[in-house]
Specification:
By secondary structure, the chain is an all-alpha fold. It contains three helices and no strands.
Length: about 100
């Protein structure tokens, strides 16, 4: 996103203020502690039901037998093959 929008966004894209603590601000100005509760506050259709607020487990916790294969595949994202894309995408070290 262009730096001209710094601090001028809100909603599902966050605030773009480089402060993660204010990214989950709801339309009412509250700060939700979890992503699902935050997303439920931004629904635009009154007929949509709220998603359960318990956070889903990490895929590696749900399928521990697949962890090694997943880590092998994800390691390719962090390899030199994609080194030129680091300015385009932010790659999380979590995966």
């Amino acid at each position: 996103m262009n730096c001209d929008y710094s601090g001028q966004t809100k909603g599902l894209c966050g605030t773009f203020s480089e402060n993660q603590k204010d990214d989950f601000i709801t339309p009412d100005g509250d700060i939700e502690p979890a992503a699902i509760a935050f997303a439920n506050k931004w629904k635009t259709n009154e007929y949509c039901i709220d998603e359960p607020e318990n956070e889903p487990k990490h895929p590696c916790e749900l399928n521990p037998e697949r962890r090694a294969t997943a880590e092998e595949h994800c390691s390719k994202i962090h390899s030199d093959i994609f080194s030129g894309t680091y300015n385009i995408f932010i790659i999380s070290k979590e995966f």
